[in-house]
Design brief:
The complex is a heterodimer. By secondary structure, chain A is an all-alpha fold. Chain A has helices at residues 2-9, 11-36, 41-48, 52-84, 90-102, 107-116, 121-126, 136-160, 165-172, 177-206, 209-214, 221-230, 235-260, 282-309, 333-363, 369-381, 384-394, 406-430, 434-442, 447-475, 492-501, 505-532; strands at 312-314, 318-321. In chain B, helix 4 (108-116) crosses helix 12 and helix 6 (195-208) crosses helix 7 (210-223). Chain B is globular, with a radius of gyration of 24 Å. Classes of the chains: A mainly alpha, B alpha/beta.
Amino acid sequence: MLEINRLKSEPVLLLTIMAALSITVFFVVWPLIKVITFPKPQEYLRVLADSIWYQAALNSLFMVVISTASCTLVAFLFAYTIVRLDVPLKGLFRFITLLPIVSPPFIVALSYILLFGGQGLIAKYILHITIDIYGWRGLWFVQTVTFFPYAYAVIYSTMQSIPANLEYAAYNLGASRWSTFKDVFFPLCRPGVAGGALMAAMNVLADFGNPLMIAGNFRLLPTEAYMQMIGVGDLSTAAILATALLVPALGLFLINRYWVGQRSYVTITGKEISLPPMKVLLLVKWGLFALCLLISIVIIGVYGVLFYGSFAKLWGYDWSFSWGNMVYVLNKGKEIGNSLKFAFLSSLFAALFALLLAYIVQRKQVGLNRVVDFLAILPGAIPGVFLGLGFAMAFNEKPLAMTGTSAIMVIALMFWNIPTCYSASTAGLQQIGNSVEEASLNLGVGPFRTFKNILLPLLRDSFVSGLTVSFLRSITCLSVVIFLYSAQTAVSTISILGLVQNGEWGGAAAFTTVLVSIAFTALGVVCFLFKKQGKSLEI
Amino acid sequence: MKIFKTKLISLITLLMLIATTILSGCGTQSTASTAGKTDTTKQVTSTSNKLVVYAALNDSDVAWIQKKFKDDTGLEVEFLRFGAGDAAARVEAEKAAPKADVMVGGSVEFYDNLVKDGCLDKYTSPNAQGLDSQFIDPNGYWQGWYMGVLGMVYNTERFNKELAPKGVKEPATWDDLLNPAYKDLYVTSNPATAGGGYIFAADQLFRLGDDLGWDYLNKLNQNVHHYTPGAVDPITLVATGQFIAGMAWAHDIESAMKKGYPIKVVVPDQTAYEIGGAALIKGGQNPANAKKFIDWLLTKPIQEMNRDNSNRYSILKDVAPPQGMIKLEDVKLVNYDRAKASEMKAAVVKKFTDMIANKAAK
């Protein structure tokens, strides 16, 4: 009752929330409903009665648990080392956390097979063992490499804004180093860790490129759904399996909410002094450094093979130098241009819209904010390929017929990116106490200027990091666009998938090398522009 | 209160900014496309110089076809390349508002399914006269324009090193693949996702009859390391030495071999073949050009070029087989009942999927 009164007195707030809600509902819930209601009820019964899918569901759950755990652990390790430790090679570590985001998801599997497979360079020539790399172990490795950067991006931006003051206080009051870490530092990281794990988990859950390449006979829900749709043309079963994916996604969402809970994580209160990070034991410091280095070497190995292979005469057989594979990249200027254009527009819109949503949820405590919060994170729970399919079904006819246009590519990618940007903005906002804004408002500064001059600069890191991660993952996105692209709007990942499907793995590697180079160049330009203004871009 | 209001006004301005950007984006896009539509419908009666093709072909095939067709006719073709299943699913998904004029490539079974769902238009090319009747859809929708046969691929280096010393002979028949020596060293494609994978399964059922056929597939299942999603994947895996033997289209194996991989292709007796199709998509915007394209595919020079570029067999009797490949007359083909194969596909795939699931569970 109170809330309704409050909203009545703030019609503009009400309108804003309503507008944000309806846009999100229209572009997220409507396509979703289209997919869910596609099969008839009796078809649901038929599919659910078939025990064959239960194994796939269990396997999916299993992968989500182990891959999310490893992704979050690696991400935390990298974030802690980069933010808190005084060690060399931080530039390299940062690079390692970007590389997998910038490469198409399924491509890691190619070099993984080459490195660890039956005739693999490492397995055969270094370790002298034969291991079967197909199945859940291989998938675990590939998914960890592919998805830990998503968790890292969120954990890093949270850790970044945790001042060392409290730890000094705890330590000076007699707490041990371990208990300082465990009881003071880690709880402050929790929103980041939870958000990061959620991002990783949702990516793992919806991943279908890697399982297709590496899982062998290990069946998962997204691959089964994909096979039903592509192979048998059975859209109904595919839609049902996709719907089944939403259930664990919902569970993840609730766990995340429960774990982060109602605690307060305010650390930027406007009355602080910043101190250098607490020193840690040398042994711990270099131990963590060595771990990061080891992981970096493995990842560099994986991508090194890909890079080397793109200039090799015959992928996996004749390693002599050749420009031959670059032939596949020529004449693909349109696809590369489309990739960059769509990625830029969609990530920009996503970052702005997500900031608005995060602001409503975090600062305007109205009853609707749980709904807004849910909607903002929901696209992350929808497997990309079904978000794409939903868009294709929902916007194929009036009132908004836009299949085959650039607009549908941009909007689909935008909503696919919103959870990334939203998590970053939310984590950022949770760190900023109301007092800073209140001080500004009380001193007579207008709300818009307060937002612009106080909140935005404090949010800049999380905003830009969300934007950048979105941009990079849009460039390399395959799943969302696979049902939406047309002859005019084809993108690079589509071409790369085509090359893999044709057995032109060398050509696929070459295209990936070019795409990764372009993405890093774009990133370099942004960094350079930031530096020129005396700021630094933190990703 | 006033402060809040202004603050929210600024917020809503931001929101509307985003909304207008998005919506104006769509607005221009959709008006542009409707404008395009009316344009092309007008042009159909006169001349449109556009053609949109969904191709279940290789990247390299698409490249030469695009160039050659433009040289020959002056028409600009927009190609989208997929696997056959993806292409069919796309045509199906766009049924209400088709974006393409022609689907080309991929076994004709995929076309039969599209016919059932009313996604294709009838067309019989004047150039189809004199062709063997199996290349022309009895119902008048699709047109066959190339042939491929299934073959076995094996890695000569690994075979000679690991299997030959054990006294294993080079594979020559489908039954040779049942040799336990191939256990976990053999890969093949999944009938659920790969056209070739399904035709292989149907081949065995036609060759041996239902009971013995399933018996064969079950036994072979013991040797299969895993089922790949695409028909070409086994070749790459065998070529790079991950596995020793595999099953795939002979023309794709031949292409990989010509690149220099240490592999050999075997076309066994009682193998099955695919007929690669082409058809008009119902509601396409450039039907005149689409027909021109299908006519063009059936001409002798194009049949020869396709043979040289893709190593596929021509449907014309006076076009020689691809260089280095066995003559089709010398291959004892299985009596492949295409209508029955289409009809039983769903049931076979279901049974096959259950069979693999049991393997995976073990």
